[in-house]
Every structure is written in C-alpha cells, then in structure tokens.
Amino acid sequence: MATVRDIERRIRSVKNIAQVTRALEAVSASKVRKAQNAVQNTRPYATEAWRVLADLTKQAGAGPNLHSLLTNRPTHAIDLIVITSDRGLCGAFNYNVIRHALEFIKQQTVPVNVISVGRKGRELLYRAGQHIVAEFSGLPASPSLLDVSPIGRTAVDDFLSTRTDAVYVAYTDFVNTLIQKAHVRPLLPLSLGVSEETIAAKAVGSLEPTRSAPYVYLYEPNINAILDNLVPRFTELQVYQAILESLASEHSARMVAMRNATDNAKALVDSLTLVRNKARQTAITGELLDIAGGAEALKQAR
Fold first, then answer.
1. What pTM, to 2 d.p., does this model score?
2. Does residue 54 form part of some domain?
3. Which pLDDT score, from 0 to 100, does residue 61 have?
4. Residue 223 lies in a domain
C-alpha cells in the first residue's frame, strides 16, 4: 500500500498538471474566438465567389470545356489533402480526420497521393503506410491566403499536369464549440452544375444560402479570360476556407479536452485526498495501538 508521503507527492503532481491544462484551456479559449471570427468573415466571400463562378458557366456561349479545372475525365489517380494540427492535446480531432481519410482511401480503386497539412496527420498517415507526396506544417496561428496558397497550387498543378485526375480534401467543419464534423469532399474538378439551394453547402459546408433573388452579372473582357484567373484562385480559396474551419475546430476541441482534463484532475485530487486521509488515520490508529500495547506490556511487567 502507498505511504502517505507517496500519496501527497502524487497529489502535488496532479495539481501541477491541472494548472497546465487550465492554462492551455484559457489559451485555446482566446484563440477559438479569433478562429471563429475568421471563419465567419470568410464564409460569405467564399459563398459569393462560388455563385459568381457558377453563374459564369451558365452564361450564353459557355461551352462544356470552359476550363481544365472544370473538366471531368477518367480517374487514374487521386490527390487527397488531409488537414490536421501540428500539436496534440485536442481530443479526437486528428483521429477523426485520419479515420475519414483512411476510409476514403480504402474505398478507392486507383492510387491515392496524400498532401498532408499538419505534422500530426503526416505522422499518422506515414505509420499507416500511405503515399505522402507533399507535406505542409508550421502554418501561422492566423494564416492568410498567401500562407495557404502553396497548398492549393500543388493540387492545381497536379491536376493540370494530369498527374492526378481528381482532388479531394479531408478536414473538419466547424459547427460550434462542442460540435465539429470531419469529412471528405471533392475539390477538383469543380462541379458547378448544382442548384442554387446547394451552392453554399458546396462552397463552405454548413452555411445556408441567403440570397433570395438572382443577380445579373456583366463580365469583361470575356468569360474565358476571367475563368483563367478565377478558377485557380477559387480552388486556393476553398483550401483556405477548409484550413480556417479546421483551425477553429482544433482550438475548440483542445479547449474542451483541456477543460475535461482539468475537471478530471480535480476529481482525482479529491479521490487521492480521501485515500491520503484514510492512510493517515490508519497510521495514527496503528501508532495508538502500539502505544497502548506498550503501556499494557509495561503494566504487566510491573
């Protein structure tokens, strides 16, 4: 049985851990607010960019092959962008993304090349024996589109060079502080033949469409010139939006995980305190019995 000193040492250790988890919870709480604001600020822009792009393909004179990134072709290879975190201590956040990614890879009949975003995803996918062709990590806490654009350009270059015929992205959609949904969705080729009601869901996941009446757009100089600039940028924008969603989900998951860890540490301290008190009472009772036994032995000796 552990001694009182051993139990007190363990109580101090648990209290120190509780202080660390409480500090991490506070840091994540401040970061999650910034990440939520970033997600909410970019969702309307991403949705409207998708609507403009969809409107372009419906213009008079728009042919079936307006742009290479809009053209479907037989699939011989797939790129999968997997977005995870660089650090742990965020509950099942990384595991859920990797699980969906591995399930997606298992369902494919063609080779899947993985573009990993985040050190945790790279490590887990490498251990799972997946083919990782590119790895991005160390993104800033509040990344800009310029920081993320190399990821999108890598996927676009692979698609345009026919090294891959389809691109998917595995990430976590931010719903609220307690709910984050990991899933895999297509990125390239862009599928714009959708109804107005599903445009927002295609672009940013959970955002509901808000436009009640159609807009009329005038394009200069021509549709093809605009698409040559707009389609690659919109692909990078989708990757950027997915990373912002994942960052907000990561900070929320870490905040909840650290809060649970702090609560568990408090419960463990209470339990260990009770065990320590019982051990102390047992030791005191034993000492009293020894004293009483010694006094009785002296009395009989006299």
1. 0.79
2. yes
3. 52
4. yes
